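Hi R.,

Here's the input for the C2G complex you asked about:
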Amino acid sequence: MKRVVTYGTFDLLHYGHINLLQRAKQLGDYLIVCLSTDKFNKEEKNKNTYFSYDERKRLLEAIRYVDLVVPEESWEQKETDIDLYHIDVFVIGDDWEGKFDFLKDKCQVVYLPRTEEISTSRIKNDLSLKSGVILQ
Ligand code: C2G
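And here is the predicted structure with C2G in place:
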Protein backbone atom coordinates (compact mmCIF):
# COMPACT_ATOMS: atom_id res chain seq x y z
CA MET A 1 0.00 0.00 0.00
CA LYS A 2 1.44 3.30 -1.17
CA ARG A 3 0.97 5.98 1.49
CA VAL A 4 0.74 9.67 0.64
CA VAL A 5 0.87 12.67 2.98
CA THR A 6 0.04 16.32 2.54
CA TYR A 7 -0.15 19.33 4.86
CA GLY A 8 -2.28 22.43 5.07
CA THR A 9 -4.84 24.68 6.74
CA PHE A 10 -7.71 23.95 4.30
CA ASP A 11 -9.86 26.81 5.60
CA LEU A 12 -13.12 27.60 3.75
CA LEU A 13 -12.66 24.38 1.81
CA HIS A 14 -12.85 25.06 -1.94
CA TYR A 15 -12.32 23.28 -5.26
CA GLY A 16 -8.61 24.22 -5.31
CA HIS A 17 -8.16 22.12 -2.19
CA ILE A 18 -10.23 19.32 -3.70
CA ASN A 19 -8.11 19.37 -6.89
CA LEU A 20 -4.99 19.02 -4.75
CA LEU A 21 -6.40 16.19 -2.63
CA GLN A 22 -7.71 14.33 -5.68
CA ARG A 23 -4.31 14.44 -7.42
CA ALA A 24 -2.51 13.56 -4.19
CA LYS A 25 -4.65 10.44 -3.79
CA GLN A 26 -3.92 9.42 -7.39
CA LEU A 27 -0.25 9.12 -6.40
CA GLY A 28 -0.94 6.28 -3.96
CA ASP A 29 -3.54 4.19 -2.16
CA TYR A 30 -3.89 5.93 1.20
CA LEU A 31 -3.89 9.69 1.80
CA ILE A 32 -3.11 11.29 5.14
CA VAL A 33 -3.78 15.00 5.63
CA CYS A 34 -1.80 16.72 8.38
CA LEU A 35 -4.14 19.57 9.21
CA SER A 36 -2.76 22.77 10.75
CA THR A 37 -4.16 23.23 14.26
CA ASP A 38 -5.67 26.55 15.34
CA LYS A 39 -2.62 27.21 17.53
CA PHE A 40 -0.18 26.46 14.70
CA ASN A 41 -2.15 28.66 12.30
CA LYS A 42 -2.22 31.57 14.70
CA GLU A 43 1.31 31.38 16.09
CA GLU A 44 3.30 30.08 13.11
CA LYS A 45 1.30 30.81 9.95
CA ASN A 46 -0.31 34.08 10.99
CA LYS A 47 -3.64 32.72 9.78
CA ASN A 48 -6.93 33.34 11.55
CA THR A 49 -9.16 30.62 10.16
CA TYR A 50 -12.89 30.97 9.70
CA PHE A 51 -13.46 27.33 10.68
CA SER A 52 -11.91 25.74 13.76
CA TYR A 53 -9.62 22.71 13.57
CA ASP A 54 -12.49 20.35 14.45
CA GLU A 55 -14.74 21.88 11.77
CA ARG A 56 -11.96 21.75 9.14
CA LYS A 57 -11.17 18.16 10.14
CA ARG A 58 -14.84 17.19 9.80
CA LEU A 59 -14.97 18.67 6.30
CA LEU A 60 -11.79 16.90 5.17
CA GLU A 61 -12.93 13.56 6.59
CA ALA A 62 -16.02 13.77 4.37
CA ILE A 63 -13.87 13.88 1.21
CA ARG A 64 -13.61 10.53 -0.59
CA TYR A 65 -9.88 11.03 -1.35
CA VAL A 66 -8.93 11.51 2.31
CA ASP A 67 -8.26 8.44 4.48
CA LEU A 68 -6.94 10.01 7.68
CA VAL A 69 -6.69 13.51 9.16
CA VAL A 70 -4.12 14.21 11.89
CA PRO A 71 -2.90 17.48 13.47
CA GLU A 72 -0.06 19.56 12.12
CA GLU A 73 1.37 21.32 15.20
CA SER A 74 4.86 22.35 14.07
CA TRP A 75 6.97 22.98 10.97
CA GLU A 76 9.45 20.35 12.18
CA GLN A 77 7.15 17.34 12.43
CA LYS A 78 7.33 16.26 8.77
CA GLU A 79 10.34 13.95 9.07
CA THR A 80 8.88 12.19 12.11
CA ASP A 81 5.50 11.96 10.39
CA ILE A 82 7.10 10.26 7.37
CA ASP A 83 8.57 7.59 9.66
CA LEU A 84 5.52 7.36 11.91
CA TYR A 85 3.06 6.85 9.06
CA HIS A 86 5.47 5.00 6.72
CA ILE A 87 4.98 7.62 4.01
CA ASP A 88 6.07 6.92 0.43
CA VAL A 89 5.05 10.24 -1.14
CA PHE A 90 4.98 13.79 0.25
CA VAL A 91 2.73 16.05 -1.83
CA ILE A 92 2.01 19.77 -1.64
CA GLY A 93 1.13 22.65 -3.95
CA ASP A 94 3.87 24.26 -6.01
CA ASP A 95 3.62 27.49 -4.02
CA TRP A 96 6.02 25.49 -1.81
CA GLU A 97 8.26 24.44 -4.72
CA GLY A 98 11.67 23.36 -3.39
CA LYS A 99 10.87 24.12 0.26
CA PHE A 100 10.59 20.46 1.25
CA ASP A 101 13.34 18.92 -0.90
CA PHE A 102 15.13 17.98 2.34
CA LEU A 103 12.54 15.20 2.66
CA LYS A 104 13.78 13.56 -0.55
CA ASP A 105 16.10 11.17 1.28
CA LYS A 106 13.07 9.80 3.16
CA CYS A 107 10.35 9.74 0.51
CA GLN A 108 9.29 10.98 -2.92
CA VAL A 109 8.51 14.73 -2.91
CA VAL A 110 5.90 16.03 -5.37
CA TYR A 111 4.88 19.66 -5.91
CA LEU A 112 1.57 19.95 -7.74
CA PRO A 113 0.40 23.02 -9.68
CA ARG A 114 -2.03 25.12 -7.66
CA THR A 115 -5.52 25.90 -8.93
CA GLU A 116 -4.69 29.51 -9.74
CA GLU A 117 -7.99 31.37 -9.76
CA ILE A 118 -9.22 30.39 -6.29
CA SER A 119 -7.91 30.87 -2.76
CA THR A 120 -9.30 31.24 0.75
CA SER A 121 -8.15 34.87 0.93
CA ARG A 122 -9.82 35.60 -2.40
CA ILE A 123 -13.11 34.15 -1.12
CA LYS A 124 -12.87 36.32 2.01
CA ASN A 125 -12.06 39.45 -0.03
CA ASP A 126 -14.83 38.87 -2.56
CA LEU A 127 -17.40 38.23 0.17
CA SER A 128 -16.43 41.33 2.16
CA LEU A 129 -16.52 43.41 -1.05
CA LYS A 130 -19.94 42.05 -2.05
CA SER A 131 -21.41 42.41 1.42
CA GLY A 132 -19.89 45.91 1.65
CA VAL A 133 -21.56 46.99 -1.61
CA ILE A 134 -24.96 45.43 -0.74
CA LEU A 135 -24.98 46.81 2.79
CA GLN A 136 -23.95 50.36 1.93
N1 C2G B 1 -3.91 24.74 -2.89
C1 C2G B 1 -4.03 24.59 -4.27
N2 C2G B 1 -4.73 25.50 -4.98
C2 C2G B 1 -5.32 26.56 -4.37
C3 C2G B 1 -5.21 26.71 -2.97
C4 C2G B 1 -4.49 25.78 -2.24
O1 C2G B 1 -3.51 23.63 -4.84
N3 C2G B 1 -6.01 27.46 -5.12
C5 C2G B 1 -3.15 23.75 -2.15
C6 C2G B 1 -1.92 24.33 -1.46
O2 C2G B 1 -0.82 24.43 -2.36
C7 C2G B 1 -1.68 23.30 -0.36
C8 C2G B 1 -3.11 22.84 0.00
O3 C2G B 1 -3.94 23.20 -1.13
O4 C2G B 1 -0.95 22.20 -0.88
C9 C2G B 1 -3.65 23.49 1.24
O5 C2G B 1 -3.57 24.89 1.07
P1 C2G B 1 -3.42 25.80 2.40
O6 C2G B 1 -4.49 25.46 3.35
O7 C2G B 1 -3.23 27.23 1.96
O8 C2G B 1 -2.07 25.22 2.98
P2 C2G B 1 -0.75 26.02 3.43
O9 C2G B 1 -1.13 27.18 4.26
O10 C2G B 1 0.04 26.23 2.22
O11 C2G B 1 -0.11 24.95 4.43
O12 C2G B 1 3.50 22.69 6.47
C10 C2G B 1 2.89 23.04 5.25
C11 C2G B 1 1.74 23.99 5.46
O13 C2G B 1 0.88 23.53 6.47
C12 C2G B 1 0.98 24.17 4.14
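One thing worth noting: Residues 3 and 30 are 5 Å apart (CA to CA).

Cheers,
M.
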